[in-house]
Specification:
single chain, Creatine Amidinohydrolase, four-stranded antiparallel sheet, 4 helices, Pept_M24_MAP, Pept_M24, metalloaminopeptidase activity, protease
């Protein structure tokens, strides 16, 4: 299903997107050494409930998964890159943490992800590698957004994202990538993180897309945890994931998942 939203629905999407972004910034500020991933999940539920919204993940149970996700947010640490199920783990300084959150508010969903190093400043090869991974995903996301406008095709966005990732020296996995979003979290069209320009579905004003570049330091192969959800790098290398929900407008793309405040 591909939805084209009305102006009123896009406006509701702006409110949802701001909520998602603000929650992620709040969680980032709280995610210090000693914090348990299950605490992050609990805080997320509280913030969503206070806003009168719902998490898109709690009852999410696609055909490839082992039951419902059962948590409010995805938490990936170091080699965990996608669909990270929160578990009993306490963060330490230097961990590379990815938070992926999708929320439904007033009938419109928004989806975003951020990656950051716990403890902020650091030194050493692991820290430098983490910053390089994060930077590559952020630049790739910016390139994809820059190409989003009515008449562009999904392949144009995929090509822009993949070009940045490959130029940064990373192999690109296209098993999971961006997607349409609207009244539900995952919709068509798919927007892989690499592709051929000029191919794919033509974009129209009123469409919402969640673009989400992610990379692994030295592999393109994923493995699945015993929890049936968490996807990790096959080699145990570090990973990063960055995502925004955008609205296609007559003038280009509008990022909906920008925070209204910091911290």
């Amino acid at each position: 299903m591909i939805e084209v939203l009305s102006a009123a629905e896009v406006e509701r999407g702006r409110r949802t997107g701001a909520l998602v972004a603000d929650i992620l910034q709040s969680l980032k500020a709280r995610s210090v050494a000693g914090v348990n991933l299950l605490e992050i999940d609990r805080w997320t539920r509280q913030l969503i409930d206070e806003a009168g919204a719902t998490s898109c993940y709690l009852d999410y149970a696609p055909v490839w998964a082992d039951g419902a996700f059962g948590h409010a947010i995805c938490t990936g640490v170091n080699d965990g890159v996608l669909h990270g199920r929160p578990y009993d783990y306490r963060l330490v300084d230097g961990d590379l943490l990815s938070l992926d959150l999708a929320v439904l508010l007033d009938g419109v969903a928004a989806d975003a992800a951020i990656s950051f190093v716990v403890g902020g400043a650091g030194a050493g090869s692991a820290h430098a590698e983490s910053l390089a991974l994060i930077d590559a995903t952020e630049r790739a996301l910016a390139a994809g957004i820059a190409g989003a406008r009515p008449g562009a095709r999904t392949g144009d966005l995929s090509h822009a994202i993949g070009s940045v990732l490959r130029e940064a020296g990373y192999a690109v996995n296209t098993d999971f990538g961006g997607h349409g979003i609207g009244s539900t979290m995952h919709q068509d069209p798919a927007v892989p993180n690499d592709g051929r320009a000029g191919r794919g579905f033509p974009l129209r004003a009123g469409m919402l897309l969640a673009l989400e570049p992610w990379v692994m330091a030295d592999t393109a192969e994923l493995v699945t945890d015993d929890d049936g959800w968490t996807l990790r790098s096959a080699t145990g290398c570090r990973t990063a994931h960055t995502e925004h929900t955008i609205a296609i407008t007559e003038d280009g793309a509008e990022i909906l998942t920008l925070p209204t405040r910091q911290g």
